[in-house]
């Protein structure tokens, strides 16, 4: 009988598409549109979905001590899913201090990193409209917003400011298929 590690090592790893961008730049909408567009099945679980394992009142009252272990658990879970042969669409906010964590987590796996851009004003507008922010809109300081993309080398890039997620997903799907 195969153990967890044996089963994962006997399966070809799934592909990982990391959609990297600041909050409210359209990563989730793009991931959902990609799921509908790509020919083969792709699993999507956002960090926000993963965080929902704790009730919202825990996050509102959190002093910051819950986030780091949840983030590590989320990334570890994504790695295990990929090792089990599952293709993943994952969202990332790779601030400069977390880039090594992402690189270490996905080392040895087939990863495509997509830069998801939009203007700062558009991200602020979207953040104000988000119904899932029970503690109110997140602060989006300009410095933190721009840091997510600073000194990043992307395999692909999209700008969600003016194009629909569906249009961008069609473009990305073609490019992902040729990037095999």
Could you explain how this protein is built, in words?
With 180 residues, the protein is α/β, with parallel strands linked by helices. It has a single domain (4-178), classed as Rossmann fold (3-Layer(aba) Sandwich). The protein contains nine helices and five strands, in the order H-E-H-E-H-H-H-E-H-E-H-H-E-H. It has helices at residues 4-9, 27-37, 47-51, 56-61, 67-83, 99-106, 120-129, 142-147, 165-178, and strands at 16-20, 43-44, 88-92, 111-117, 156-159. A five-stranded parallel β-sheet has the order 2-3-1-4-5, with helices on both faces. Helix 2 crosses helix 9 (165-178). It starts with a helix and ends with a helix.
Structure described in brief:
This protein is of the alpha/beta class and 180 residues long. It has nine helices and five strands.
Features:
single chain, 180 residues, alpha/beta, Rossmann fold, 5-stranded parallel beta sheet, 9 helices, 13% strand
Question: CATH homologous superfamily, by name?
Answer: P-loop containing nucleotide triphosphate hydrolases
Which CATH first-tier class would you pick? Alpha Beta
CATH architecture classification: 3-Layer(aba) Sandwich
The radius of gyration over CA amounts to 17 Å
Instruction: Give the mean pLDDT.
Output: 88
Beta-strand fraction estimate: 5-15%
Major sheet characteristics: 5 strands, parallel
List the helices and strands and how they pair.
Blueprint: H1 4-9, E1 16-20, H2 27-37, E2 43-44, H3 47-51, H4 56-61, H5 67-83, E3 88-92, H6 99-106, E4 111-117, H7 120-129, H8 142-147, E5 156-159, H9 165-178
Parallel strand pairs: 1-3, 1-4, 2-3, 4-5
């Amino acid at each position: 009988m195969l153990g967890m590690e044996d089963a994962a090592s006997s399966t070809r790893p799934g592909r990982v598409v990391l959609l990297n961008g600041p909050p409210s730049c359209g990563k989730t909408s793009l991931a959902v549109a990609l799921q509908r567009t790509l020919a083969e099945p792709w699993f999507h679980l956002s960090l926000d979905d993963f965080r929902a394992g704790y009730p919202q009142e825990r996050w509102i009252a959190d002093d910051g001590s819950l986030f780091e272990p949840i983030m590590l658990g989320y990334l570890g879970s994504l790695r295990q899913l990929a090792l089990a042969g599952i293709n993943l669409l994952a969202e990332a906010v790779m601030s400069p201090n977390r880039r090594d964590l992402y690189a270490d987590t996905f080392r040895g796996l087939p990863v495509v990193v997509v830069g998801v851009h939009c203007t700062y004003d558009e991200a602020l507008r979207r953040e104000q409209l988000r119904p899932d922010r029970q503690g109110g809109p997140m602060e989006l300081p300009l410095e933190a917003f721009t840091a997510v993309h600073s000194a990043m080398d992307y395999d692909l890039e999209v700008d969600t400011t003016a194009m629909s997620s569906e249009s961008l997903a069609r473009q990305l799907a073609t490019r992902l298929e040729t990037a095999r």
